[in-house]
């Protein structure tokens, strides 16, 4: 991987062709709100719940940015997204960011919060023919492993309407805003190779055309050094389709298998992917490994000038017996947004609930404590570098999240949230907290565009902390961030 990145760096310095990146990363809640506003207004077509979002999805935004007849919040969203697309369309792009905080957030939502007290990175992005390269370096103080990393780095090669990629790419699969059950940015990006469909064109073939616009994402990643089996692999598969305007359905699956001293041949992988009966769930060390599968659905519509999105997701551990999947975790939510006056300002509000305590549909219905995100073979669970790959609250926990934001005519975003989290409330999942803890977290922040980059200031207060049995310490945190793309 290092040799590839060095070679890509040399090419990036010599190249002068246009377009810096093939997609938008899942790191800006304002961008996501704008995308959903444009989808509800009919400007964007096809699935938008799987990120990074290909720039090919945004091909019609330029025309919308020039259409003054659109509602003011829709036009403002089109202007912001079109400006971002034009930024990514320049011959070279440098993305620099730094965040500092006295206490990193417990919740890693759809954004770019600091993972450690100091979190900084810089990446150079360039297109060389059909090859996109992002070469960068980052620093996090006292993170797991070395403080420096190469997580802004990847290479993607475009073949027709597909992109083959390798390196560190942040993924977020699903409609949730506070979290995603299967793949989110809760953990650091996993080194991986993958394939992604870019423009979500429908299939012009009987029956299949009913699927509408569709997209596929698939990757194989390496989970590095672990306490169970080093270099365990994770396979992620997702199929998104939009059978009707505003309706989006995603079907996804993740598999943990292989690793040092574990079987990893064709038979093992095929049993994991297409095992019949109980072949992939023997209950012994002979089975391929850990599997999670499920789906999400969302419906977005413009109603009386307000964009409304209702959504849900369910993921389940594979189970012995006739059922393919069982032991479900779930999330559901609602977001609303609309214009605030006639000058392009807008508001947004949302609520989201999630539970990662596994509910077993079979056997008369019961809860299976300690099951979700866990596996008897891969005892570190569904994690990377100790952090959950799915929802950041990890297993056997639940959350209620309320958020609101106001974006003014100068694109300054003021936001706040209140979250009530019950960590490890069964006492069976001790990775984040060794004992049950209930924590209320209030957040206020502002994202302020300036001529030298976007400045973010966020304050957080919580009335308890993880791993504090018998006491409830009040904690406050301040986070200051800066990001510039040029």
Would you mind describing this structure in some detail?
- The protein has 486 residues and is mainly beta.
- The protein has one domain: Porin.
- Helix content is 12%, strand content 44%.
- It has 5 helices and 26 strands.
- The chain has an 18-stranded antiparallel barrel, surrounded by 4 helices. Strands 1-3 form a two-stranded antiparallel sheet.
- The N terminus is likely disordered.
Count of DSSP H/I helices? 5
Q: Which of globular, elongated, flat, extended, rod-shaped describes the shape?
A: globular
Radius of gyration: 22 Å
Q: Please state roughly what percent of the residues sit in beta strands, choosing from under 5%, 5-15%, 15-25%, 25-35%, 35-45% or over 45%.
A: 35-45%
Structure in a nutshell:
The chain has 486 residues and is mainly β. The chain contains five helices and 26 strands. The protein has one domain: Capsule assembly protein Wzi (Porin).
Task: Name the descriptors.
486 residues; mainly beta; Porin; 18-stranded antiparallel β-barrel; two-stranded antiparallel sheet; 5 helices; disordered N terminus
SSE inventory with pairings:
Layout: H1 2-14, E1 23-24, H2 29-40, E2 50-51, E3 53-54, H3 61-65, H4 72-88, E4 93-101, E5 118-128, E6 131-140, E7 148-149, E8 154-159, E9 162-168, E10 172-173, E11 191-197, E12 214-222, E13 233-244, E14 247-257, H5 266-274, E15 289-303, E16 306-318, E17 325-339, E18 346-360, E19 366-368, E20 383-384, E21 387-388, E22 398-407, E23 413-423, E24 437-450, E25 453-462, E26 475-485
Antiparallel strand pairs: 1-3, 2-10, 4-5, 4-26, 5-6, 6-7, 6-8, 8-9, 9-11, 11-12, 12-13, 13-14, 14-15, 15-16, 16-17, 17-18, 18-19, 18-22, 20-21, 22-23, 23-24, 24-25, 25-26
Helix pairs in contact: 2-4
């Amino acid at each position: 991987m290092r040799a590839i990145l060095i070679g890509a760096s040399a090419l990036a310095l010599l190249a002068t062709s246009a377009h810096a990146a093939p997609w938008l990363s899942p790191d800006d809640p304002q961008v996501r709100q704008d995308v959903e506003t444009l989808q509800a207004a009919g400007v964007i077509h096809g699935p938008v719940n799987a990120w990074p979002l290909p720039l090919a999805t945004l091909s019609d935004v330029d025309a919308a940015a020039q259409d003054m007849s659109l509602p003011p919040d829709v036009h403002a969203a089109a202007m912001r997204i079109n400006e971002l697309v034009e930024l990514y369309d320049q011959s070279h792009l440098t993305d620099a960011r730094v965040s500092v905080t006295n206490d990193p957030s417990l919740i890693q939502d759809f954004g770019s919060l600091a993972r450690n007290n100091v979190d900084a990175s810089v990446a150079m992005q360039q297109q060389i023919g059909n090859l996109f390269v992002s070469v960068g370096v980052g620093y996090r103080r006292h993170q797991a492993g070395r403080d420096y990393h190469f997580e802004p780095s990847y290479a993607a090669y475009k073949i027709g309407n597909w992109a083959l990629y390798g390196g560190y790419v942040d993924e977020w699969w699903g409609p949730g805003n506070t979290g995603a059950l299967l793949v989110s940015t809760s953990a650091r990006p996993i080194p991986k190779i993958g394939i992604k469909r870019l423009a979500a064109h429908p299939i012009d073939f009987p029956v299949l055309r009913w699927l509408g616009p569709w997209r596929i994402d698939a990757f194989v990643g390496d989970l590095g050094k672990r306490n169970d089996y080093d270099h365990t692999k994770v396979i992620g598969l997702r199929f998104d389709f939009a059978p009707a305007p505003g309706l989006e359905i995603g079907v996804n699956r993740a598999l943990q298998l292989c690793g040092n001293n574990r079987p990893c041949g064709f038979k093992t992988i095929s049993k994991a992917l297409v095992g019949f009966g109980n072949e992939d769930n023997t209950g012994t060390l002979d089975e391929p490994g850990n599997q999670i599968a499920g789906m999400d659905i969302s419906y977005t519509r413009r109603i009386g000038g307000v964009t409304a999105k209702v959504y849900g997701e369910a993921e389940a551990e594979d189970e012995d017996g006739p059922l393919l999947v069982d032991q479900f975790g779930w999330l559901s939510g609602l977001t609303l947004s609309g214009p605030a006056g006639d000058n392009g300002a807008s508001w947004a509000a949302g609520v989201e609930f999630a539970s990662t305590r596994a509910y077993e549909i079979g056997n008369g219905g019961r809860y299976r404590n300690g099951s979700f995100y866990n596996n008897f073979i891969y005892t570190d669970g569904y994690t990377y570098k100790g952090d959950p790959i799915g929802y950041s609250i990890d297993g056997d926990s639940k959350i209620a999240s309320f958020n609101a934001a106001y974006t003014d005519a100068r694109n300054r975003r003021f936001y706040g949230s209140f979250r009530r989290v019950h960590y490890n409330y069964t006492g069976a999942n001790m990775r984040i907290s060794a004992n049950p803890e209930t924590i209320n977290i209030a957040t206020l922040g502002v994202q302020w565009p300036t001529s030298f980059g976007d400045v973010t200031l966020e304050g957080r207060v919580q009335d308890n902390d993880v791993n504090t049995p018998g006491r409830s310490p009040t904690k406050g945190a301040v986070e200051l961030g800066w990001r510039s793309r040029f």
